[in-house]
Amino acid sequence: MLENFPFYLGLLIVILLLIMLANKIKVAYPILLVLAGLAISFIPKVPLIQIEPDLIFFIFLPPLLYEAAWTVSWKEMWRWRRIITSFAFVVVFVSALSVALVANYIIPGFSLALGFVLGGIVSPPDAVSAGAILKFVKVPKTISSILEGESLLNDASSLIIFRFAMIAVATEQFIFYKAAVSFSWMIFGGVGIGLLIGWLFMKAHKYLPTDANVDIVLSLLTPYIIYLAAEEVHSSGVLAVVCGGLLLSNNRHRFLSSKSRLQGINVWQSLTFILNGFVFMLIGLDLPQITNGLKVEDVSISSAIGYGVLITFVLIISRMISSYGAVLVTLVARNFITVADSRNPGYKTPFILGWTGMRGVVSLAAALSIPVYLNNGNGFPQRNLILFITFIVILLTLVIQGLTLPYFIKKINLTDMYDPLPKEEAHNNLRHELAEFALDYLKSNYSDQIESNSSLQHLIQKWEQYSNGIDDEQIGKELKVIYLDLLDKQRQWLINKNKEDQTLDETIIRRQMHYLDIEEEKLRYI
Predict the structure, then answer these.
(1) Measured between alpha carbons, how far is 396 from 308 in angstroms, rounded to an integer?
(2) What count of other Cβ atoms lies within 10 Å of the Cβ of residue 422?
(3) What are residue 379's DSSP bridge partners?
(4) Most buried among 17, 74, 134, 199, using CB within 10 Å?
(5) 492-515, pLDDT tens digit by residue?
(6) Which family does it belong to (predicted)?
(7) Count of CB atoms within 10 A of residue 286's CB?
(8) Is the whole-model pTM more than 0.85?
(9) Tens of pLDDT along 416-451?
(10) At 373, is the secondary structure helix, strand, or coil?
(11) Contacts of residue 121, Cβ cutoff 8 Å, sequence gap at least 6
């Protein structure tokens, strides 16, 4: 390990340089990292990076899923719950089934159970890749919300398929009623354990004498403890982490101080930045090891590449068909139930949703977690071929779909799907309403202090100009107490506003919340 430490440091520097290059040329950084890893793997005497299959899920998945749960908007998830659920469960199952049937029919020695193993691995699209691409192009909030919500749940559904398929391969049988009971426990047990442990951590943050550093360390421990607890009782660790993360995220202002929130954001962004960078680099670096394994299974490189291309084609087509099918079902359902958006999306939105099917972190982690040997001592059948096909799928979807997605978004006119109110205008309106609320609150609750406190009068003048700020000047203790009270009431007003106005983009609310946190933190240094 230590003899390769300089290599790991060099790899980190390469990752940073490539991500900066990707931002400069406006290309999704996972694409460059995978290609760079592939190129580095052909350099002579490059150390092999090997991770124990049992640890791959535990190292990478919990923090990445937890951070995603803190980032996503629960309000938007609930608003688009039907289409998100259909993409996260139905579309994933259709993709896995399509892959299983084609692999079983085309690839020699590939049983249906092995087909579902492969299908479970490659069926979930990667949120990081899509997010990196969408950063450079403007898309309607509808599309980004659906993709964010889908990315949280499709990992869980695909890994459940993967787990059942692995059991079928190991036991060579599939008992339906046992599978149904196990499936129910994985879903409901995972949700329950995630919510329970999330609630316990929330109480720990709130009632223990923590500071910002302790809060951040606790937040780093949370996803691992939730995941481990759920997996120990054979429920879904992925669902547990997602549910626990959503619970804590939506209550963050109740148990975390402004300092903990501000510092925690920076720590978590840096952590996920490094983890994602290493994972995508690892995808490319692993190819020589996977290729050598194909020789053991007596599979030619050309045949394996052909299988990979075929499976990639099946995934793209099945997701595209499922995307239009999901929208068609929604259009029919709007005659019987209330839907989030009754407008007809036409062919544009389903096409973009269907084309954002890049694979990445979860697919690699699932493939690498396949054990080398079964419990009976025999080698896991077709393991290296599954790994190679997964690599080809990740590479092709990242390069083909990843590079062409920005072109399609710009080429297809999506103006009719944008929110009626521009984001900046909505933010300014919210800021105006918040300023009015602040003035009303100050005048109603601190009328006596206003007459005698010139600093408070100055603050009111600023709110009247909608500047929503305070100078870095020395202020009295009394004004600090009043201003902290005001900030707390503003947060509660924003939370209520977010609940009441279902059309308001939650990112605007969070932006204003972040500003209030900064304002509170400034008071500590005044």
Answers:
(1) 9
(2) 10
(3) 373
(4) 134
(5) 898 888 888 887 888 888 888 888
(6) Belongs to the monovalent cation:proton antiporter 1 (CPA1) transporter (TC 2.A.36) family.
(7) 24
(8) no
(9) 555 555 666 777 778 788 888 888 888 888 877 877
(10) strand
(11) 158, 162, 363, 366, 367, 386, 390
